[in-house]
């Protein structure tokens, strides 16, 4: 359970705008639009995909396990009759997998020759006790939660920009975390080569994610690219309070009991996904914004204020440049603007 002191400090510190009318069960019609969701085989990613499918979007479920993706697709099609859905193998901790998946999307291997939004959701929540690295030597939590999505967004940027129209601006939504407000994590040692701790690895990776999301929007605007970047967090969303879905979410009795005790400060992952989906499809959301549950850990999605660290322009620029160096990739901003006719 979240410590009570942290919870009340959170309530005191966050500023938010009065919520506009929004019903997660009655989303605006998304017919004709295509969204790619990373980590879509379980948790927040699955329920966000289900909500988009109910709104008649075409949804590309991506994940690293073919068996789990198949189970998620089968569950979604059973729960949403007539859903338009495909699967895509994608391991966001593996740069080769990212580039192969992005090439599949760009190459038109999917039903619709457009991409209207990307939910950068996949990540590690239960971080390893000891520092681990990927095949290319990147710290595993950073690579999975942040760096891989930095590369994926860059690879898909031109595809997104070409889907812009007078009535729709494509979006990328980055998965933030309320944990970033519970400590001043300035990621100078971004790969935690000194003093790795599991909790710090998670929080610091989320500071990086939020900083990238906000810096991305500033750079997209400056380059004239018609794509928005938004950050959203799901509050305190837990599996034991989430509907049972075979092959997707199957908590045991003890998990149900334990998570039910946290009901006053928690919600289901289905409810947590609402903030992510609103950030992705609400026409009133703007690039550079930060969205999360109304009561911080739970509730309907509202506009909120991010942590000072992840919103700091100097921190954002430093993190961006570090991610460029670690990934060996620069975003094709000029090309994206040109292809969009800007």
Automatic annotation (TrEMBL):
Keywords: Oxidoreductase. Signal peptide: none annotated. GO terms for molecular function: oxidoreductase activity. It comes from the Bacteria. Belongs to the short-chain dehydrogenases/reductases (SDR) family. PANTHER family: NAD(P)-BINDING ROSSMANN-FOLD SUPERFAMILY PROTEIN, RETINOL DEHYDROGENASE. This is SDR family NAD(P)-dependent oxidoreductase. It comes from Microbacterium oryzae.
């Amino acid at each position: 359970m979240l410590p009570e002191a942290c919870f009340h400090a959170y309530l005191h510190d966050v500023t938010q705008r009065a919520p506009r009318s929004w019903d997660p069960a009655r989303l605006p019609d998304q017919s004709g639009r295509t969204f790619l969701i990373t980590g879509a085989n379980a948790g927040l990613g699955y329920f966000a995909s289900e909500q988009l499918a109910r709104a008649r979007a075409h949804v590309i479920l991506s994940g690293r396990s073919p068996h789990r993706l198949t189970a998620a697709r089968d569950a979604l099609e059973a729960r949403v009759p007539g859903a338009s859905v495909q699967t895509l193998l994608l391991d966001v901790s593996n740069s080769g997998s990212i580039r192969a998946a992005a090439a599949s999307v760009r190459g038109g291997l999917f039903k619709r020759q457009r991409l209207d939004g990307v939910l950068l959701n996949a990540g590690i929540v239960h971080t390893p006790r000891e520092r681990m690295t990927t095949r290319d030597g990147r710290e595993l939590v950073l690579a999975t939660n942040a760096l891989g999505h930095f590369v994926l967004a860059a690879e898909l940027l031109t595809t997104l920009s070409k889907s812009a129209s007078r009535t729709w601006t494509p979006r990328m939504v980055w998965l933030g975390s309320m944990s970033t407000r519970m400590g001043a994590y300035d990621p100078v040692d971004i790969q935690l080569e000194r003093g790795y701790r599991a909790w710090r690895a998670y929080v610091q990776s989320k500071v990086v994610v939020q900083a990238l999301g906000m810096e991305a929007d500033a750079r997209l605007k400056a380059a004239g690219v018609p794509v928005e970047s938004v950050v959203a967090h799901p509050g305190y969303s837990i599996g034991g309070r989430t509907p049972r879905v075979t092959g997707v979410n199957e908590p045991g009795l003890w998990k149900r009991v334990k998570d039910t005790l946290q009901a006053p400060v928690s919600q289901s992952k289905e409810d947590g996904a609402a903030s992510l989906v609103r950030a992705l499809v609400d026409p009133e959301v703007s690039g550079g914004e930060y969205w999360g549950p109304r009561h911080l850990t739970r509730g309907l999605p509202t506009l909120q204020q991010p942590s000072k660290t992840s919103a700091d322009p100097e921190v954002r620029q430093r993190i961006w440049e570090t991610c460029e160096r670690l990934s060996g990739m620069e975003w094709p901003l000029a090309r994206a603007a040109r292809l969009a006719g800007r």
